[in-house]
Amino acid sequence: MLRTNNCGELNLAHVGNKVTLAGWVQKTRNKGFMIWVDLRDRYGITQIIFDEERTDKETLEMAQNLGREFVIQIEGTVIERESKNPNMPTGAIEILAESFKILNASKTPPFTIENETDGGEELRMQYRYLDIRRNPVRENLIFRSKVSLAIRNYLSSYNFIDVETPYLIKSTPEGARDFVVPSRMNAGEFYALPQSPQTFKQLLMVGGMDQYFQIVKCFRDEDLRADRQPEFTQIDCEMTFVEQEDILARFEGLLIHLLKEIKGVEVSDFPRMTYAEAMQKYGNDKPDIRFGMEFAELTDLAKGKGFPVFDQQELIVGIAVPGAATYTRKQIDALIDWVKRPQIGANGLIWVKCNEDGSFKSSVDKFYSQEDLQAWAASTQASAGDLILVMGGEVNKTRTQLSALRMELAEQLGLRDPEVFAPLWVVDFPLLEWDEESKRFHAMHHPFTAPKPEQMKLLATDPGAVNANAYDLVLNGNEIGGGSIRIHDAAVQETMFDLLGFTKEEAQAQFGFLMEAFQYGAPPHGGIALGLDRLVAILGGQETIRDFIAFPKNNSGRDLMINAPASIAATQLDELNLVLKPTS
Amino acid sequence: MLRTNNCGELNLAHVGNKVTLAGWVQKTRNKGFMIWVDLRDRYGITQIIFDEERTDKETLEMAQNLGREFVIQIEGTVIERESKNPNMPTGAIEILAESFKILNASKTPPFTIENETDGGEELRMQYRYLDIRRNPVRENLIFRSKVSLAIRNYLSSYNFIDVETPYLIKSTPEGARDFVVPSRMNAGEFYALPQSPQTFKQLLMVGGMDQYFQIVKCFRDEDLRADRQPEFTQIDCEMTFVEQEDILARFEGLLIHLLKEIKGVEVSDFPRMTYAEAMQKYGNDKPDIRFGMEFAELTDLAKGKGFPVFDQQELIVGIAVPGAATYTRKQIDALIDWVKRPQIGANGLIWVKCNEDGSFKSSVDKFYSQEDLQAWAASTQASAGDLILVMGGEVNKTRTQLSALRMELAEQLGLRDPEVFAPLWVVDFPLLEWDEESKRFHAMHHPFTAPKPEQMKLLATDPGAVNANAYDLVLNGNEIGGGSIRIHDAAVQETMFDLLGFTKEEAQAQFGFLMEAFQYGAPPHGGIALGLDRLVAILGGQETIRDFIAFPKNNSGRDLMINAPASIAATQLDELNLVLKPTS
Fold this sequence. Notes:
Two copies of one chain form a homodimer. Chain A has about 575 residues and is an alpha+beta fold. The first copy, chain A, has helices at about 55-65, 120-125, 130, 135-155, 200-205, 245-265, 275-280, 300, 310, 330-340, 370-380, 395-410, 460, 490-500, 505-515, 530-540, 570-575, and strands at about 20-30, 35-40, 45-50, 70-80, 95-105, 160, 180, 190, 210-220, 230-240, 270-275, 295, 315-320, 350-355, 360, 385-395, 425, 430-435, 440-445, 470-475, 480-485, 525-530, 580. Chain A has three domains: about 10-105, CATH 2.40.50.140; about 140-270 and about 425-550, BirA Bifunctional Protein, domain 2 (2-Layer Sandwich); about 290-410, GAD-like domain (Gyrase A, domain 2, 2-Layer Sandwich). Chain A is about 30% helix and about 25% strand. In chain A, a hairpin with a 2-residue loop joins strand 2 (about 35-40) and strand 3 (about 45-50). At the A-B interface, helix 3, helix 4, strand 6, strand 7 and strand 8 of A face helix 3, helix 4, strand 6, strand 7 and strand 8 of B. Strand 23 (about 580) of chain A pairs antiparallel with strand 23 (about 580) of chain B.
């Protein structure tokens, strides 16, 4: 060991000890006759002192030339500090240096290695190894490691077996786009990287493994929206001989355990909400329930009162913004502009101020009486001092727009406290969703989700009305996991592929192995997958998953540090039997 | 839950309980008036009984038609068995069935789901989900999960942080062949799948993470020798501010912990052997030291005695095979044929029987006196009753051949007891090895391994003589891990790339980011990587890693179950800007 102690552990109990420390120079203060060095490692910072009375001349001179981020090894004695720093675990002591060695010099880093850095996103990604030296980034990675180990130990204690499934699998065009890997040994053929180990975990259940988990990388070749990564990490789980309730109980238990173990937060029974209810009350299947502002449908109240804009709408829906009756015209106009932005796409926003005296002032006073507005207030549960905001239009679109507004207002009002945790289950998802563009059904969850047994007959007559025992785990407005009871019957699976527009041949080519497996005693099973990146970010009180990934990629899927992807040698392409398409 | 209990936990304490079990029909015995069903799940087997006195008629009739591997759910009462089976944890009870439900039927499986199956390798791989139902395969996977969790908890307890490094990285032609992944968003460019996270873990050390581990999939596109997989799992570790000794101590500790925790075997201080010593004594850098038969160099003793075959050899080397003096001419001829096979390629084998009366009988009696042979015996430490086998030829070739013979003999003599564990460290590996074919040096370990500091000067004058602080962890004749102290100085790294034949431009293009990182305060660091597949197999008392991988690939890199790799859609290729090379 090049050190006897780390930079975070020495205190008054060690005074008088001879120690050797190694680390990075965080900063130096040089008064000529005395030099202080803050020495940093993963564990903390320890102050080193050189002075002309107690340090030999040569050492003192060497210390004059120490630059930021130099790596040094110092030997010295722990002494008590004159002016203590109570905010640092090592703040009561310092090390009187006797000798030191420069283990490696450093050029001046391109940005400051401080909690708040002057480096922009791109620069920090290019020098990610320097970014990781900063406390917040390092602590995020350590936090992730802790969460991940706690998950493993929790699931293992409940008899889940960690099974590694393959990364080189087969491309299945259903769902998102696959990353593919050309096979050299099988010319013209390709592996695909898994979008999830879905079929493998189901086959493990067919194989009698009973309870499986894996923390595993998954891959999707999608155009990257903000805060998506082409490779991401999934906590993947599956259980046999279970019903939906068993899965919810176990993974509710996992999240309760993590919140307690990692955050010291006690949460108990999670609320349940059907998909239909979530859409109706929050316009969103991953509602943030840390705050209210639930939707009130005002269609019946607002139609037929002579306001032509509303009269023609399918849905009229409002929320009560707490304490916002004092908003100025300018503030309200800003909200109207906000919903009219192309990203939201609303036509406008009706407002009603609930005055303290019980009267109402609205942008539609011409059409609605005080009694009408009173009824709106009752419906939205608005109190005196609140501001009611109302939108109208096509059902789904309007809900989505008002949901975005609700989140924006919560953000503005500071209602999204990252240290409050409000998990819930959203259940009873539709099995299928109709896609207008391709004029066919898509699987809402995935093609392996089972219809609710009692609705099985509807599959033939009205498939769009069939629900699934599918569920999402939602935390603070984010879907952190989703799962379902799976199909375990070959005939049902065939029907499902048929509904999704697969020909028999396509289904056979892509999933023949699964349908065959179902003929050899496949047990009832179900499971869930949680997004580790997102879960860790939310538990860490942050929203950006990139901050919890050691080496993330940018929005073009590029690793700026190693500069990947990159061109490969012609011989490599040739061995893979591939030719680049001439650029047109 | 579709069950109240699993099939492995009921015993006399539960007699009288009403239970519900679910599982697979292992077998049925039908006496008409009485039917026994062995019901199996991951946890064990429980006997179910239906009889005409106590079971209703309809249920009994249904039970008549149960086939192997049907999945059923049964309700019944735990009763004491008349004839108990002491070899089964549930052998004292059975379940008197009241009702049951077929959860899924099964076609007759293509091979028997028994400890010893009639299914061939290929069939079992095609129906791997059925193979996994067999106890030995399932137990191997559970064992792997246990080992893996024990490793994580051990390393975490010593402050190692589990950091996930990326899978989509950059191709670096040095070393084995990469699997590559075409990038759709960056036309004409490719990612590569990591052969190991080597550079990333070093960058984590540069980033101050101090101690890192990861259990991670790695990929090599090699022509598959027996028992190699294109994707394999590595326990990847790195430490900062350490010397070789610190790393050996920590990972010796890990293996001691695993052997104790998982196998109940106590092992202490591992022997150390230099690479040179291992080659000289065992002809092999991963010697199996569970048994003796150490090499004795007989060159000086055997040359110049008029035996022309030996007189012209560079090395003459022998081993004493314990108790083999009784071998018949036929047995010895078989050994001679064995070493002459093209896989070994030896020209022949000289033998000397050490008779019980102290005399010697050899195949070269014409050239060597009893005193000569006595000296050979002394050198090989042969006792009366042993058989000395001697080979001669070019040093490296002869050592390799005799090493193969030594292992074969140990196998024949039953000296490779899978329940004996003999770990050791092989240290002081050469930094470089000369490749005759390409007329240049290759890195013996990898290009990031540091020369021994005291030999740094030799790099310029005699690079082939330089050793490294590189080490292998060897267990029962298998290298289960290897590592080194790394280069952390940009200039040394440049020299190394230069020695390995990289041009400055190549080094910059491939590893520029690493050499740049070394200029910003890179600390001294080193690490190790262990092969999890191999480690688990050896701890499990077996030699084949495939048996410890849930879904392995065959020697053509093919997954026979899902039939991957496969062709992909023309649109996929097109989006990736690729064209298949016309087959010639």
